[in-house]
What we know:
By secondary structure, the chain is mainly α. It has a domain at 266-495. Helix content is 75%, strand content 2%. The chain has helices at 8-21, 27-52, 77-100, 103-107, 110-126, 130-149, 154-185, 190-199, 203-221, 239-265, 269-291, 296-317, 320-351, 362-365, 367-381, 389-402, 405-431, 451-473, 475-490, 492-501; strands at residues 58-61, 72-75. The radius of gyration is 22 Å and the shape is globular.
Amino acid sequence: MIAHVVIWPILLPLVSAIVLMFFWNQSKVQRYITVAGHGISLLASFWLALRTYSGDIITLNSGSWPAPYGIVFVADALSGTLVLLASLAAFCVSLFSVVSIGTGRASFGFFPILQFLLMGLNGSFLAGDIFNLYVWFEVIIISSFVLITLGSERAQLEGAIKYVTMNLLASIIFLTGIAILYGLLGSLNLADLSVKIAQSDDKGLINTAAILLLVGFGIKSAIFPMYFWLPASYHTPPAAVSAIFGGLLTKVGVYALIRVFSLLFIDDPFIRSTFIVLAVSSMIIGAMGALVQQNIRKIFSFLIISHIGFMIAGLGMFSTLAVIGMVFYLFHDIIVKTNAFMISGLIFKLRGSFRLENLGGLYNRYPYLSIMFALAMFSLVGTPPLSGFWPKLFLLKASFNELNWWIIGGIIAASFLTLIAVIKIWLSVFWRKHPNYVEAKKRIVWYDLPKIQKFTILLPIAILTVVSLYIGLNAAKIVEICQLIAEQITQPSLYIDAVLSNPENQP
């Protein structure tokens, strides 16, 4: 029965979405149900994560079909933690959306689709075979496409077309890579593929599949040069949608890169060198793109691209220190980016605009909000002892050990450019006097909200700020978890044995 806990983070959002459909025209009831549903999913994810921190790799074979013949769900420390963070981010976004999402979008299925999106995210993290991973990716694409188009504003539809076109192209490339591996090796199970690839002599086709998977996952991760769709789309939907997108969607692509290439292809020197080139390019180009933007959500969108490069750099080096830094940065980035986009939504409610030239004066009027924003932004920069500092320290240590000056230079340059972008936001939004943007007065709704609704908007921002502070100030505990994950990732035999040798993994 212990193995069944693996499926709870997938089944609970599905059940919540089905229940929500029975209250399709009852917006107020939907808001209560969605928060309760995400809360229960968070508790189940927390229980699953705790189980994996003991070092167990828990597996569940669907229909009792033994691996590698049936669909298998696998929870190790990495996937367990990501399911927990995804559920936490979704819970906070659901709280934020209770007030920020209007009746119009709610009546067209916003809350059920948000549950389906969480189901797809958790399914991707727990998938034990590569085709099942593809299926969960499609669940994510369909759900996110609906969320990004709700409201049917011109900017949303334009961004949605770019988003779905590039992601469908990535899915086709991904599926082609799967087809090559299945045609060559006759398996889809990740653990079984790892064994068979090591025994195969047909390196040409295997390398072709590796490149196809790299391109497919690279598009979904928005790494250089496959990132153009992200800043063209993430700033168009409501802030609640941008928050879940910015915090989690690209991280699914990063997780897929980590899982597939740590198990199947990481020993290839060409692949590792390619990761390093892509990582440094993403760091610099993303940070430079953020500097020239005037829309606060576009700045955050380009910073997503830049900071994905830090994670990819760890995968390129693939030492224990590098993997610790990569995983730590992944955890930190999910929390901080989700929070940053929600804060941008709050700024819009306070000032009626996302453009820097129309903002200002928030520090004098709202000092506590300003402090929360400062904590989130300086965590992005990597200011000690906040959460962004520690993973950069591990990545720099790993780079010095390998004398990889390209990554060292990329981390330093990207951090400096991120600092400039953050200072630019701080000076424009919080420090200078408010420019009295007249047109915004029609869109400012904050002052008309009841106190309970204001509290509901501020609560998830405060929760993620506290979590980010906990990660930074209790870094030793987070590093212990990351060390366990690094051990499991750098020793693929642990994953393979758990899936193939002991399918049910009963303790």
